[in-house]
Design a protein that fits this description.
This protein is mostly helical. It has 21 helices and 6 strands. Helix 2 runs antiparallel to helix 5 and helix 6 packs antiparallel against helix 7. The N terminus is likely disordered. Pfam families: SusD-like_2.
Length: 485
């Protein structure tokens, strides 16, 4: 009787198990089966705010590569890519997940990153797919190109909408590795980016469509409605950790240790100002290793415009500095600033110089310097001594050059290509092209050509965009709408 009963139990158990679908055994109960906005936000932030770029340092005459001819350094580049559309797809997925899961607090951040990536794309090329972009699921595989002027207006409106979506009662977001879910800091970042965008339109100040002066002043003069960054703690930056996949991007990079040197005009600029940030940026030249690390005579550079052979020869004399070892020895080093408080203060200084806002341009300018030097851990006494120098004071004649120059110094190994865009807009600082290594007829390019893939998959719209913007064809010296007076 016992055997019959046990057999019956086994049969029932087998029967119940057999009722389960095979697919149910393929599902890990410990893993999410759908995307959540917090996981997507984490990925987006890591991509967007990683602004530490040796390529940008070469382009902007801060570093030099000596083991070969660098297109960034010698201005011989051609095309760039549309990879940021992949990042924008992640932003779109975050929006969709936030909507599906009723988490509206992610929507203003999504608007911020839409603006961020579309700005990167249009600053690189000019006109780009915008209104019809990211609609592959709707069957739009060859999107039309929007005009740059329309894209900028949409970006400004999106940023304003993003600001308005964040209120005192907005719930914090999860997965936020930048501000730990603090929505008021996101609000400050959104409005600070708006000021950067408005300033980038300085050559269009008389275009009524953008109302640049009034928009700029409205943000600066109404901190209750439009708060902006208040210190380095508000920096939109990516911190690094001593964990696989999270370390400083040039940690243990062999080329950084052997093939990259400081650029001469950049080193001389810092030495001329007696700028102690040089000691944080550079290593002493081997020939002067016995000198104290705070002796400006211990540092030197090579010209980014000189030929590879000329620079290689100069490095052997031991008078040229490499980058500070912390950039390749320290897995954490320093955060990568995508946009920071120092830049914001220089933006405000320029706004005051242009008459867009009241306030002291000199005070904003000095605050920018102090914020940058604090970021690089310069001692307060050294900061005071630096800003007290007559050569560092904001001059009455051509103050814009001093503002942009200090913004440029503050961008070393952060801010991506932003200093290149500032040079393109203002002409400051001067990027040396006098040497025999420079390509492109010894001119600094204005843009990058469209990716070759567009010629295959979207030729009609790509050709239309080129024709209306660049009479000489798709070339790196084409002057996009943004920088036409």
């Amino acid at each position: 009787m016992k055997k019959i009963f046990l057999t019956l139990l086994v049969c029932i158990a087998i029967g119940q198990t057999g009722c389960k679908k095979f697919s149910e055994f393929q599902t890990d109960p410990n893993k999410s089966t759908s995307a959540t906005p917090d996981l997507l936000l984490n990925t987006i932030e890591q991509s967007a705010f990683q602004s530490t770029s040796i390529g940008a340092a070469l382009t902007c005459r801060q570093m030099v590569y000596t083991d070969g001819a660098s297109d960034e350094q010698y201005y011989g580049w051609t095309r760039s890519g549309f990879g940021d559309y992949d990042n924008l797809r992640q932003v779109l997925k975050m929006e969709q997940a936030a909507t599906a899961q009723d988490k509206p607090q992610y929507m203003p951040i999504a608007k911020f990153f839409r603006a961020w990536y579309f700005l990167q794309l249009t600053q690189t090329f000019g006109d780009i797919p915008y209104s019809e972009a990211l609609k592959g699921e709707d069957g739009v595989y060859a999107p039309a190109y929007d005009k740059q002027e329309d894209i900028y207006l949409s970006v400004l409106n999106d940023l304003k909408a993003a600001n308005d979506l964040i209120t005192a009662s907005t719930e914090p977001v999860l997965g936020d590795i930048v501000y730990n879910g603090n929505m008021q800091q996101w609000k400050r970042a959104i409005n600070s980016l708006s000021l950067r965008v408005l300033l980038s339109l300085s050559l269009k100040v008389d275009d009524a469509r953008y109302d640049i002066k009034n928009r700029f002043a409205a943000i600066v003069n109404n901190s209750a409605q439009y708060p902006i960054m208040t210190g380095n703690a508000d920096n939109a930056q990516l911190k690094f950790y001593d964990l696989v996949g999270n370390r400083y991007p040039y940690f243990n990079n062999n080329d950084m240790q052997t093939a990259y040197y400081m650029e001469e005009t950049f080193v001389n600029l810092l030495k001329g100002y007696k700028d102690p940030r040089l000691f944080s940026f550079a290593d002493k030249a081997p020939k002067f290793s016995a000198l104290p690390p705070t002796d400006f005579n211990a540092y030197g550079g090579v010209k980014g415009s000189a030929t590879v052979n000329e620079n290689s020869g100069r490095t052997t004399d031991g008078e040229i500095s490499k980058i500070n070892p912390r950039f390749y020895n320290n897995p954490v080093n320093e955060p990568s600033i995508a946009m920071g408080y120092a830049e914001l203060q220089f933006i405000l200084a320029e706004g005051a110089v242009r008459g867009w806002i009241s306030g002291s341009a000199a005070d904003y300018y000095q605050q920018g310097i102090r914020a940058s030097m604090s970021f690089y851990n310069i001692a307060p006494a050294a900061i005071d001594a630096y800003v007290a120098q007559s050569s560092v004071q904001l001059p009455a004649v051509n103050p814009l050059q001093s503002i942009i120059t200090q913004k440029y110094i503050a961008s070393f190994m952060n801010s991506g290509y932003q200093p290149f865009y500032e040079h393109r807009r203002t002409g400051f600082p001067n990027f040396d092209v006098s040497g025999d290594g420079v390509l492109n007829n010894k001119m600094v390019p204005k843009r990058w050509m469209y990716p070759e893939s567009e010629l295959r998959v979207n030729q009609q719209h790509n050709t239309e965009a080129i024709t209306r913007q660049y009479p000489q064809g798709d070339n790196i010296n084409g002057v996009m709408w943004l920088i036409k007076p």
